[in-house]
Write a structure and sequence with these properties.
- With about 220 residues, the chain is α/β, with parallel strands linked by helices.
- The protein is built from nine helices and six strands, in the order H-H-E-H-E-H-E-H-H-H-H-H-E-E-E.
- Helix 7 packs across helix 8.
- The chain is globular, with a radius of gyration of 19 Å.
- The termini are far apart.
- The relative contact order is 0.13.
- It binds zinc ion.
- Zinc ion binds next to helix 5.
Amino acid sequence: MKEAKPLPAYLSTRYQGWKATTYSENKAWYRRLAEEGQRPRAMIISCCDSRVHVTAIFEADQGEFFIHRNIANLVPPHKPDGQQHGTSAALEYAVTALKVANIVIMGHSSCGGVQGCHDMCSGEAPELEDESSFVGRWMDILRPGYEKVKGIEDRAERLRALEQQAILTSLENLMTFPFVVEAVENEKLSLHGVWNDIANGELLCYDPKSESFVPV
Ligand SMILES: [Zn+2]
């Protein structure tokens, strides 16, 4: 692999700073984490978007959250077809091996993945319909969500509704995995859906009673 290069300076400098301060001041804690293994309380599934700062929002410590990120925080439906499913693998490990108590699906405002799905479904982004588009095929998961919101006239409102559909679709798809269903039914696992407004730092949580997202 001759293409791999040394780390750029902005990364190596920051790493050295972390090693000299945070790590060095908490060395015993890191060693304990290494010896005892991880026992995270929650799995968080969020978008890859660099503005969604999951660990900062929940003030995460090392070892607390098992985090999986993908385009538009989507959980695909359970499909045991012998193919490679990264999100399903992370989910299986979190629920069956780590036995996390909570799974939080975290969506966010101005999500590029959701916008791509919107534009694909409305005919504005035909390139995403191509079979070779990984983003397009991934966003197919959200097509049924688009059908539910396409009647909303205002584009910004429609996009926000689709961002929230991405969270609901993921929650519904979680319940297609037999090991998730079993853990939920045995009250060992609870599922949660939140939406983060990047501009004002707001976090809304899905409330099944009112079938809407309410402030945390
Ligand atoms: Zn996103």
